[in-house]
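Hey L., structure's done. Input below.
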Amino acid sequence: MDALDILVRTLSVPAPMGPSRTLWQYHPQSDRHSKIACWGVLFDLLQTSALLRSHVAADKVNFGVNHKMQDFEHNKTKRLDLVLCRPGEDAPAHRPAPPVTLSSLAADLGIELTTRQQATLAALPAINRAPVGAVLVALEAKATMTEHSKAGPRLYDELNSSHQIVHASSNRALSVGFFMVNAADRFLSPNRNKGLARPVVTVHRQPNAAEHSINVVKGLPRRSGFSGTGYDGLAIVVIDMVNDGKTPVTLVTGPPAPPPGDIFNYDAMLTRVANEYDAAFAGI
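Output:
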């Protein structure tokens, strides 16, 4: 699976972010990291599920970005980072020319792909961005990079509201969460370094800080069927990011990252979601 490799490689390259458009690897006022993560998850899902590939090839399934989802039960709304969906009835007439595809989105986001990954992407059926009809899979990506303890309550509330709204809209839809947490012992916060000549470095007590955020996410509801609410798949990804614009971002595979086989491990999440998709949507 390629998403995590793509994520750390792409985040290693600084990009203009925030109101000042200063070059940063991460900025709390940018959704770049979320979009990169969601792009990678969709890339992996297409490689893993033959059924999804066939649906995409037949133009039965499209994707939407920052989709405003409204739940049927309570009339609440929330924007989801990425959704896999049935095309809306007016989709063909309202698609841009040329269409926005996974490939063109990679170019827009500055996704860093290896030669092998480029060839894999080219071999996949082109999935188009289109007006959203029925949502099949909804993906929410969140990150905690610094001030881990302070961010805990907000993190839980934001992630918890996502699966609630998805399943109050459609109990058959799959709600998927992707959480990225920083395990670096030092971090340059964009909010603390606005226009400063000498950088202010935030020191983290690790692995305690990352473990605190991980335990918050592990407490989120999960479900194993189509009744009730809870995440159908939930991945916790640990990275090491200093955010100084030059130190490469790396993936943490040892503690406190979920080990292979753990329900929160990314590969386990991706396999589960692909299997759930195959079981739930074989008849569309």
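The chain has a mean pLDDT of 92. The first strand starts at residue 15 and ends at 17.

-- N.
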